[in-house]
Design a protein that fits this description.
Length: about 450
């Protein structure tokens, strides 16, 4: 049985009260939740109970089920905020085991504009990131408190991870590392006895509910995001090579003049080219022949011009990271886009300040800043603390999530790397807490029910 050091209890009423207050303030600031056009598409699907697969359908399906609590974005806002603040609670408990009452400052980091402003939006990127933060923080707290996860935590972790990847499937690359950290904290005996059982049970329940409820109500949209990315890549390679590489069905709708094509391309995305160009409609197609032609043109262009493809992709990623820029990539501002279904958002002083922070302190929204924070935190953990494995796994998880964006990122958008920002905060908290290597209090064994 693992021993726990410290006479502290594993739950602090003070930290619980602080986090509860933070949660309440957040709901007041952001209610009923902020929506952009993507969010509204999910809402329309959730309300109708019919799901378009332009984006992962699990988000709309969850929203549909949560409508029993109200036909508004509020239940989804709570789904963002609950794991977000629970994550900061567990991180503060982890820090408390090393730095004592100073850990009461940890939840306040959740109000940092660069991450707090985004958590009010009903976006798959945000739900994925907050669920991942919760799972990581539970494991980190167990490690720092030198205990195994409690029974309810063993159920909550896989459920959170299932929801995370269900709403954002490309996030699966980040999962092996959080599982690795969890299994390490559990220990070999507990791993076999409890961890795999809880994973299998939660995944089975989710799969059954998902499979029974959804298949007959999915509207296929022929890989919308795949088409967007392929057209974006072809536009970029055409602009770079001076050759028209786009399929004819697209140039027939737009232009086959390379000068016109070059005018339409810009690093970071081509929404004006793809969507509703001169009221002609977007370039999505459900014609199988056109889809195959687009893919063939795309793959052939990459094979023929690999250096141009990599250059175009690097330009896109550099804009996403805001290298050499002082203004952020697109950031959603607090509010609800005009629509006939949901009333406008009523501003309050804090939401107004958050919106102003995008221009007033733009550096808080530059992704490279969080990449630097993550690297510095990892360096501190690896060189100055005894807590090395979990920070290393957390860093690997963040990088594994980030790296594929070089190839699949369709545009520059601040929210796409939101998980990396939260991971950077978790890494910084671990690094600071880890500098105090002596646990507080005397050694004692963990309660048998936690084993």
């Amino acid at each position: 049985m693992r021993e726990q050091h410290g006479t502290q209890k594993n739950t602090s009423p003070l930290l619980l009260a602080i986090v509860a207050a933070c949660f309440g303030i957040s709901v007041w600031v952001m209610a009923p939740g902020w929506l952009t056009v993507d969010s509204l598409n999910h809402y329309v699907d959730a309300k109708a109970g019919v799901y378009h697969d332009m984006f992962p359908v699990l988000l709309s399906w969850i929203w549909n089920k949560l409508m029993v609590f109200g036909d508004s974005p509020l239940p989804m806002l709570v789904l963002n905020l609950a794991p977000y603040w629970a994550g900061f609670y567990f991180l503060s408990e982890a820090a408390r085991s090393r730095i004592g009452n100073w850990a009461a400052l940890v939840p306040l980091l959740g109000f940092w504009p660069g991450i707090f402003e985004q958590v009010g939006f009903v976006w798959k990127d945000i739900i994925f990131a907050t669920m991942m933060l919760f799972a990581w923080s539970v494991v980190i707290a167990a490690y720092f408190q030198e205990r195994r996860p409690r029974r309810w935590e063993r159920i909550a972790i896989p459920i959170a991870l299932t929801i995370a990847v269900g709403v954002k499937p490309n996030g699966i690359t980040a999962l092996p590392f959080v599982f690795g950290a969890w299994f390490y904290v559990e220990g070999r005996r507990a791993l076999v006895r409890t961890s795999l059982v809880s994973i299998a049970a939660s995944l089975a329940v989710t799969a059954v509910a998902y499979g029974i409820t959804m298949p007959s109500k999915i509207v296929r949209q022929q890989n919308f995001m795949g088409q967007y990315t392929q057209i974006y890549d072809l536009l970029g390679m055409s602009a770079g090579t001076g050759k028209v590489l786009l399929p004819s069905y697209i140039t027939d709708q737009r232009s086959s003049d390379i000068a016109d094509i070059r005018k339409e391309y810009w690093a970071g995305g081509v929404p004006s080219y793809f969507f509703n160009k001169n009221a002609q409609g977007d370039l999505t197609t459900s014609d199988r022949a056109k889809i195959d032609e687009l893919f063939a043109k795309w793959s052939d262009a990459i094979k023929e011009y690999p250096s141009e493809y990599l250059h175009h992709r690097w330009e896109n990623l550099a804009v996403q990271l805001r290298l050499g820029a002082y203004t952020p990539a697109w950031v959603g501002e607090p509010g609800i886009w005009e629509n006939p279904l949901i009333p406008p958002f009523k501003e309050n002083p804090i939401s107004r300040a958050l919106g102003d922070s995008i221009k007033g302190m733009p550096w808080a929204y530059l992704p490279w800043v969080y990449g630097l924070l993550a690297l510095l935190s990892l360096a501190v953990s690896l060189t100055l603390t005894r807590d090395r494995l979990l920070p290393l796994l957390l860093g690997a998880s963040s990088f594994a999530f980030f790296a594929p964006h070089f190839f699949v990122l369709p545009a520059a958008d601040y929210r796409y790397l939101y998980y990396c920002y939260l991971a950077a905060f978790a890494a910084a908290i671990m690094a600071v807490a880890g500098l105090t290597t002596k646990p507080l209090g005397a050694a004692r064994e963990i309660p048998a029910e936690y084993a």
